[in-house]
Structures are given as C-alpha cells and as structure tokens.
Amino acid sequence: MKLKNFNALITGASQGFGKVIAEQFLREGANVAICARTEKDLFATRNKLAKKVPNQKIIAKTCDVSNESEVNAFVAFALSELGSIQVLVLNAGIYGPMGPTESVSLADWRRAMDINLYGVLLPCRALIPHLKIQFGSSRGNEAQTKEKSEPPHVGCYEGLAGRGKIIILSGGGATNPLPNISAYAASKAAVVRLMETLAEELKPHCVDVNAIAPGALATRLVDEVLAAGPEKVGPAFYEKNKQWKEKGATPLELGASLAVYLASPQSDGITGKLISAQWDPWEKLHEFKSDLNNDIYTLRRIVPKDRGKTWGDK
After folding, report:
1. Residues 6 or more apart from 38 whose CB is under 8 A from it?
2. Strand order in the sheet with 207-213
3. On the CB side of 104, how many CA atoms lie within 13 Å of its CA?
4. CA distances from 282 to 92, 154, 185, 259, 273 (A)
5. pLDDT over 70, % of the chain
6. pTM to 2 decimals?
7. Cα–Cα distance between 287 and 294 in angstroms, integer?
8. Partners of 61 in beta bridges
9. Does domain 7-215+250-299 have CATH number 3.40.50.720?
10. 277-295: buried (b, 16+ CB within 10 Å) or exposed (e) per residue?
C-alpha cells in the first residue's frame, strides 16, 4: 500500500472528488480526517467509508474552511485523534457567482475567494508549524548530529514519512480565462501562485507542495452550471458542461490517483508544480525529477521570443 502508516487531512470530502480522494487514501493504507460544512452529508460519508475500508481510521468534523477558528479547531481535532499529520489535501471549493463580472453579486464574489483561496491559506497556516517540526526542524537536527558542519533544516529523506505533503486542487480556472465565472478563475490562479510560493518557503523544511488539475469532473459544479443556463455562463461553456453531464467527463478516480501519487514517497522532492491528471505523465514523474528544477508545470509569463517573435527584443 502506497500510504501505509500515513495520516491525511482532506477538506471538502463529504461528496464528489474529495470523497473519492478520501476513499483511495484509505485503500492505500492512510488514516484520514475529513471535513465539510454540511454535517449530515459529512457523517454519512464517514460512515460509508468506514464500512468500505474497516481497517483504517477515518474521523470527521464539520468545518467552514474560510473560518479561521473552525479550521484551527479541525486541525487540532485531527492531530488529537491521529497523533500526527503527514499529508494535507485542500479540495474544498465552489464556482461562485456566474454571469458578467460587472453584474454579479460582489458579496458572492468575495465568498468564492474566501472559500477557494482563504480555504487553502488557513489550513496551510494551521498545519505548517506541525509539518515543519515533524519534517524540517527535527530532521535537520538529526542530520546535524551526524554532521556538525551541516546547516539547520537540511535533513530531508526520501522514503516513508521522509517529507510532508501539501496537495491543492486547482484546475482549468488557473490556466485559462473563464468568462462569466471570474471569481472561480481568479481564485484558482491565485491558489497556484500561493502553491508555488509555499513550495519555495517549505523546501528547506522537507515539505513538498503541489497542485492538481483533475480535468473536467461531472460533480455538483456541472449541475450548477447547467442550472445557471447559457445566458449566464455563455453558450460554449454551457454546452461543454451539458456534454460532460450526458456523455461523461474525466473519471474522478484519475485525479484521486494523482493525489495518492503526490502524497506518497514515490514523489518525494517533486514540488511547486501544477500537474494535470488527464494530460501529464505523472505516473513516472519521479524518473525525471532532475528535469523539473525549472518552470515546467508552472504559471509563467510568455514573451514574444517564446512564440518565435523578435519584435519584443531590446
């Protein structure tokens, strides 16, 4: 099992993609703490998963990921029940208001930012000190005892529990304009840059931070687009979602398998990347780790010479 003896915290896990991630983590040997805002759905999911995978521990607590006190309480609860956390999966998210940016509710726009962006930031802030102690400071001190001249926070090891893992759900909203769904697009782009920044901050502390683009998923978000109608989301995007609903979209299990890979020791040292479950060869990225110390799988500005143009040269 790829995650044996690991403990993971997963947000937004009462349904859809988060639920599938939780199940795959449990089947791979992890113990899991899940949260969501709706108590009934959350505990129904916990009970179902506990029956499906009885040998692993699954705990649950309601939490609004945009509320700092609730996030801190959930992290404290998970640490109390599981003893330690090695993996943080940040899945909670919403589309937010749909329609022309100048006419949608500003309160709803801000709410989408609260959940999609602050719902990533707050759990990271709550758990990073624990991850630093577990993987950075203590490991670095251990390394120092072996080599006195070595600087602090350098004792990163590959293998079981050698590195902490933070996995953030992003998606197409980060890499392409989404007319009429601007809050979602803006928040998801911000999440990727936050991921890249945290990856640099936490690299000395032996914590890998990555983002997943899971592909088009036939979840409740598709239903929300169809309910909004082509007038609000635009005919093209509406038709895409209609096709996903009728003919199927990217399997949820594909993105969940990528989350397992990024949580496992196999991906140790891969950090600061936005990885597509559908299009990237993620199953063997560890074979090309030395090639990833650059801007591959990142958000970067494209200049004219990148497209064979010379008019941008000085």
Report:
1. 14, 62
2. 58-62, 31-36, 7-11, 87-90, 164-169, 207-213, 274-276
3. 23
4. 23, 26, 24, 10, 11
5. 89
6. 0.89
7. 16
8. 35
9. yes
10. beebebeebbeeeeebeee
Tokens of 73: 């309480």
- pLDDT, tens digit (0-9, with 9 covering 90-100), for 159-207: 545 899 999 999 767 888 889 999 999 999 999 999 999 999 999 999 9
Burial of 176 (0-12, 13-18, 19+ CB in 10 A): exposed
**What amino acid is encoded at 191 in this protein?**
V
Backbone angles phi, psi at 269, to 5 degrees: 95, -10
- Checking if the pLDDT of 262 tops 70, the result is yes
For residues 163 and 156, the answer to whether their CB atoms sit within 8 Å is yes
- 137 to 19, 61, 126, 142: CA distances (angstroms): 33, 29, 17, 9
Q: Which amino acid is at 62?
A: T
| Cα separations in angstroms, 209 against 45, 169, 242, 309 | 27, 11, 33, 34
Tokens read off for 213: 């683009």
As given in the structure block, the two tokens for residue 153 are 């926070």
> Which residue is it, tokens 């199953």?
283
Question: In the Cβ-directed half-sphere of 306, how many Cα atoms lie within 13 Å?
Answer: 4
Amino acid present at 227: A
Nearest-angstrom CA–CA distance, 210 and 135: 17
C-alpha 140: how far from its chain's center?
Answer: 26
According to DSSP, residue 151 is labeled P
Longest dimension (CA), the chain: 66
d(CA 13, CA 9): 10
What's the burial of 224, exposed, middle or buried (CB within 10 Å: 0-12/13-18/19+)? middle
